[in-house]
Design brief:
The protein has 338 residues and is an all-alpha fold. 66% of the residues lie in helices and 3% in strands. It contains 13 helices and 4 strands.
Length: 338
Amino acid sequence: MLIIGPLTIFRVQLTSPWEANIMATRSETTTSSVDTRPLWIPRLTLAQRRNVLGYIFISPFVLGFLIWFLIPAGVAAYLTTQKWDLINAPEYVGTANIEQLLSDPLLPQTLKATFIYTAVSVPVGLVFSFGLALLISNELPGISIFRTIFYLPSIVPAVANAALWAWIFNTEFGLLNAFMRGIGLSKVPWLQDPNIAVPSFIFMSLWGGVGGAMIIFLAGLQGIPDIYYEAAEIDGAGAWDKLMSVTLPLMSPVIFFNLVIGFINSFQVFTSAYLITNGGPQNATLFLVLYIYRTAFQGLNMGYAAVLSWLLFFILVGLSFLVFKYIGTRIYYENPTA
């Protein structure tokens, strides 16, 4: 109501429907913005919410590390001082299991077979996979078909792979000996001769182990800028010079990665030896992981199997240290400070 001089004027303010809707929406927004959480739940800041989200994202790795590594490692450390056959309660034996390690007659043969397998299969596999990567790195018509063919063996299941090579190496009916007879040579006891069994497994490892390393090498080769090769050609470098002076230095981190992964995997060879020879002939293919399995689940000596497991762990740690110390320092990194 407004009073102007002697007159009294009444002012009536009408609200349109759309204005009423806006006012109702604002009222609901104001009401909903009120914190209705219980008092015992703290209000987190932005930094705290980001920390919680980060912990949620890393929780699968942390849980996996605890369940599949840390807890089993603790149990294995406990079993090194116990005598346990999976049936009766563990019995404390002190250092008896470690003393058995020093007097075990099978351990030298086991370590010999494992080291020979690793020392030969890893370098040969690296050279072979790197050579295949060089061959299929060029973008030619139909090159993807060859890439697929070379990679397929690496995704064949281990059991199927073992069954295939057991047939190939069969002395009487195997494919390899059939080829030998076809060219006039006598049959070879690939898996029955202790002197040939480990080389046969090394040859077998090239079938299934080359594909994965080849793909990693191929990715590294495709990541090398063409400008380096163009500069080398301007300087008069040939194919061999470009390989030795450009490709290998720039690929050295990838080669080093495949080297470390290769010898770690080769020390854990198990499936093929277990399914094809079960450690024979005359324990020639009794690799360390297979020996651990036989000791634990066939001999029911979990304490000594735990000691062998820790031996494998320390061997891998020691070899990794030597590789990183004497080879890792020679690796060329294009941007070491990046």
